């Protein structure tokens, strides 16, 4: 089954580090799509190790409800540095979102952008009660997910659908808005058909 969602990502490690503690993963388990953005606590090899544990856990629970996926990931990360994670689950015309920690997001589609609201917490350290948010998506939606290495005092609230090229958008956004004090990741999600995106 063709994926319902296209993803465009720019990510880089803390300048001077050789590994990236940020990570991302996508799943298409037959229907819809599940996309996670992960920030292993801190930076460097231990942050990377936590992110990799999280990816393995999320793969094992990709068919399970979000609350269960977070609970299992928390258990797997016990004893590690810990990680913050947000997950976007797309079905036909809806988005279910849940996050633990501060991988933030925006939904564009209506008159103004909406904030995706992760719960406070740190997987492997403190697991909050997961209550996913659900959004009904219009045809021309766009979703941004970004780690705290991307400044929110920036152009992050600008409508990405005004950009000409989605991959260039995330690369230029990371360059412009990425903090030099952390790993940083910016992901743009678009429907398979994005008629409002200007063609070059
Ligand atoms: Mn970070």
Record the SSE blueprint:
Elements: E1 5-12, E2 22-27, E3 33-40, H1 45-60, H2 66-77, E4 83-91, E5 94-100, E6 104-108, E7 114-116, E8 133-136, E9 142-146, H3 166-177, E10 184-191
Antiparallel strand pairs: 1-10, 2-3, 3-4, 4-5, 5-8, 6-7, 6-9, 9-10
Helix pairs in contact: 1-2
Bound molecules: manganese (II) ion (MN).
Residues 39, 147-149, 182-183 line the site of manganese (II) ion.
Molecular structure report:
The chain is α+β, with helices and mostly antiparallel strands and 200 residues long. It has a single domain (5-191), classed as PPM-type phosphatase domain (Phosphatase 2c, domain 1, 4-Layer Sandwich), CATH 3.60.40. The protein is built from 3 helices and 10 strands. The protein has helices spanning 45-60, 66-77, 166-177, and strands at residues 5-12, 22-27, 33-40, 83-91, 94-100, 104-108, 114-116, 133-136, 142-146, 184-191. Strands 1-10-9-6-7 form a 5-stranded antiparallel sheet, covered by helices on one side. A hairpin with a 2-residue loop joins strand 4 and strand 5 (94-100). The chain is globular, with a radius of gyration of 16 Å. The chain binds manganese (II) ion. Manganese (II) ion binds next to loops. Manganese (II) ion is lined by residues 39, 147-149, 182-183.
